[in-house]
Amino acid sequence: MDIKEGFVGTVGNTPLIRLNSFSEETGCEILGKAEFLNPGGSVKDRAALYIIQDAEDKGLLKPGGTVVEGTAGNTGIGLAHICNAKGYKCLIIIPETQSQEKMDALRTLGAEVRPVPAVPYKNPNNYVKLSGRTAKEMENAIWANQFDNLANRQAHYETTGPEIWQQTDGKVDAWVAATGTGGTFAGVSMFLKEKNPQIKSIVADPMGSGLYSYVKTGEINTEGNSITEGIGNSRITANMEGVPIDDAIQIDDKEAVRVIYQLLEKDGLFMGGSVGINVGAAVALAKEMGPGHTIVTVLCDSGSRYQSRLYNREWLAQKGLLPER
Ligand code: PMP
User: Same domain for 96 and 231?
Assistant: First the structure.
């Protein structure tokens, strides 16, 4: 018998997919970890599960309690599913710039959703800081605190990293991923480097995120912006502290859009915007390293979460990002 224990038992163990069109173009094996196949639809199910289990193990989250989080959407969706499965309440504070699809999904799942103005992290009313204060003021509530809670990267150190190692038989030359909290990048990097320090660990960064300049110069420069959601940062989170980074690659929105449309039209994969940054960086890296290398990245979530934006020709045209056909 092979039966999974509900939602929680179904998180992780995702396939590793060869991205055929880009692999053929570059002569490298470009492999994507199919995180959109998690039961809540994104890579964040893993972090949500570890954060809740960690709070339970520490006795911080008790029956009937509330999980509070500031999230761009996917972590909230993962938390909301797990809260339902485990009998907790869920309160999500989200920047009002995030897609309607994600807000609707959260409400459908029964989470209380509070959209707030999108202001930078240094502003005390930033959604992350607001969520921390809100949790503190409530009884029997925990703050998931995905950016600085190390249970997040631990999920990837204990599951995503080992899965990639096993699925490739250890034959990985490089690991490349964009960072939101940095949990995915960090956990996988730490695990793979322990197994083989020769594996390159490369940050993919959208325009307007500070990681690229940080890796290149040591300074955080956040000039510019991106239509991608859930990635990019203006600070080094606790999850990213002390994590090995060999280099960074910056990918602009035009390239990210080109990549997700190629994945759709040539590979039949319907992907979210951060996948455009990840696979765009994997392709750039393949060109830099030359043929014959194996490069692993993440397919974070599905395009269905961005139907009204990335897959809406009018919206793309308004942004000057309509791909050539
Ligand atoms: N892509 C998407 C679509 C996301 O929602 C997130 C999480 N915010 C990421 C990538 C980045 O994952 P992490 O937080 O583990 O860095």
Answer: no
